[in-house]
């Protein structure tokens, strides 16, 4: 018997990816998967890619989760806090929602609304000192998907004083799975295919999280819905604050990272290369006309942007090598 884990909200895209990763993990034993409207249905009725996983969705209630050693919460924003509070303190929890990411209650109110549940340890192991904090924690707030791609591209540059933190501009394209599994007219195939469309321009909820994680003080984010199921490609630009080589700064910051790869000179990230992996691909340059630093970042939004990142954090919390059960290599073609 391995380490007993449960997934709440397992009928969604991130929940399904968690089930896939846990099923292939050598140390984790999936004991419970819960859902709301799908309670009572076989897991494979919702996730046919998991054929052979003999499990039925339970109702999302504390009693269904309390016997696990670790619980992943893959619930809509605003639904994790109450459920987590009802679980025994002995149960480790990784929350894939936003409920516990922000330290600033005013920022929570502005971007999400409702009561602020308080901040947990932030689940991005690649930030300085964060692995040790995650390993010592029983409650971890997993990052947002855009936040991962942008923070990994930007945080080392701000920390090194290589860019000005007050003027950061990001344009980032995401696949449709980032919007969740609920049926929405603007996500229909006939609406999405052959089209690029911006959304939440000037007020995306990941902005305060990115500023908190990177030290940026002024950040403009324009998200773009792309006609692909999964993946994020973020282009981050900033004003240089010195003459440091941005690519060299990133390469030094991630020299010992298993999952963050600064690509060879001249090779640029693309989302297909990270499909199915827990990796982030980075490249940086300085624009010859404006002089701005440009960093391009690619991740799988359901991998490093959600489920893979959550398993990476869980590995640290459970005293396992953080790479256990995770791949840094994408699936192609």
UniProtKB/TrEMBL annotation:
Q: Name one Pfam family in it.
A: Semialdhyde_dh
Q: Which SUPFAM superfamilies match?
A: Glyceraldehyde-3-phosphate dehydrogenase-like, C-terminal domain, NAD(P)-binding Rossmann-fold domains
Keywords from the UniProt entry: Amino-acid biosynthesis, Arginine biosynthesis, Cytoplasm, NADP, Oxidoreductase
Q: Does the keyword Flavoprotein apply?
A: no
Q: Kindly state which reaction or reactions the protein catalyses.
A: N-acetyl-L-glutamate 5-semialdehyde + phosphate + NADP(+) = N-acetyl-L-glutamyl 5-phosphate + NADPH + H(+)
**What EC designation does it have?**
1.2.1.38
Q: What is its main location?
A: cytoplasm
| Biological or metabolic pathway of the protein | Amino-acid biosynthesis; L-arginine biosynthesis; N(2)-acetyl-L-ornithine from L-glutamate: step 3/4
Domain named Semialdehyde dehydrogenase NAD-binding: residues:
4-135
State the CDD domains in the record: AGPR_1_actinobacAGPR_like (cd24148), AGPR_1_C (cd23934)
The protein's matches in InterPro entries, at most eight in alphabetical order, are given as:
AGPR, AGPR_dimerisation_dom, AGPR_type-1, NAD(P)-bd_dom_sf, Semialdehyde_DH_NAD-bd
The listed locations are: Cytoplasm
Report a single Gene Ontology molecular function. Answer: NADP+ binding
**Record's GO cellular component terms:** cytoplasm
Q: What class of enzyme is it?
A: oxidoreductase
A single GO BP annotation from the record? L-arginine biosynthetic process
Location of the active site: 145
Family of this protein: Belongs to the NAGSA dehydrogenase family. Type 1 subfamily.
Q: Which PANTHER family match?
A: N-ACETYL-GAMMA-GLUTAMYL-PHOSPHATE REDUCTASE, CHLOROPLASTIC-RELATED, N-ACETYL-GAMMA-GLUTAMYL-PHOSPHATE REDUCTASE, CHLOROPLASTIC-RELATED-RELATED
Q: What's this protein's function?
A: Catalyzes the NADPH-dependent reduction of N-acetyl-5-glutamyl phosphate to yield N-acetyl-L-glutamate 5-semialdehyde.
In Swiss-Prot or TrEMBL terms, this protein is called: N-acetyl-gamma-glutamyl-phosphate reductase
Query: Which species is the source of this protein?
Result: Micromonospora carbonacea
Q: What is the lineage of its organism?
A: Bacteria, Bacillati, Actinomycetota, Actinomycetes, Micromonosporales
């Amino acid at each position: 018997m391995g380490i007993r884990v449960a997934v709440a909200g397992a009928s969604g895209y991130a929940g399904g990816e968690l089930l896939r990763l846990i099923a292939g993990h050598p140390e984790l034993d999936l004991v419970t998967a819960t859902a709301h409207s799908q309670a009572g249905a076989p897991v494979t009725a919702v996730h046919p890619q998991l054929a052979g996983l003999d499990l039925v969705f339970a109702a999302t209630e504390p009693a269904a989760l309390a016997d696990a050693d670790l619980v992943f919460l893959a619930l809509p924003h605003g639904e994790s806090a109450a459920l987590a509070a009802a679980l025994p303190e002995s149960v480790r929890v990784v929350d894939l929602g936003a409920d516990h990411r922000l330290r600033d209650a005013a920022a929570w109110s502005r971007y999400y609304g409702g009561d602020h549940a308080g901040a947990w340890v932030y689940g991005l192991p690649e930030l300085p000192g964060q692995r040790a904090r995650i390993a010592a924690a029983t409650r971890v707030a997993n990052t947002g998907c855009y936040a991962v791609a942008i923070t990994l591209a930007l945080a080392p540059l701000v920390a090194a004083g290589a860019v000005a933190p007050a003027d950061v501009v990001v344009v980032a394209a995401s696949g449709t799975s980032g919007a969740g599994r609920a049926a929405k007219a603007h996500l229909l195939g006939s609406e999405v295919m052959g089209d690029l469309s911006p959304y939440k321009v000037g007020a995306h909820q990941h902005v305060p999280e990115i500023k908190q994680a990177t030290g940026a003080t002024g950040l403009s984010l324009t998200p773009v819905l792309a006609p692909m199921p999964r993946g994020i490609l973020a282009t981050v630009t900033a004003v240089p604050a010195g003459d440091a080589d941005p690519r060299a700064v990133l390469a030094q910051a991630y020299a010992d990272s298993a999952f963050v790869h600064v690509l060879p000179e001249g090779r640029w990230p693309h989302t297909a290369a990270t499909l199915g992996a827990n990796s982030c691909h980075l490249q940086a340059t300085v624009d010859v006309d404006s002089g701005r630093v440009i960093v391009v970042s690619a991740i799988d939004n359901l991998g490093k942007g959600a489920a893979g990142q959550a398993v990476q954090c869980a590995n640290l919390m459970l005293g396992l090598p953080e790479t256990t059960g995770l791949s840094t290599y994408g699936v192609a073609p």
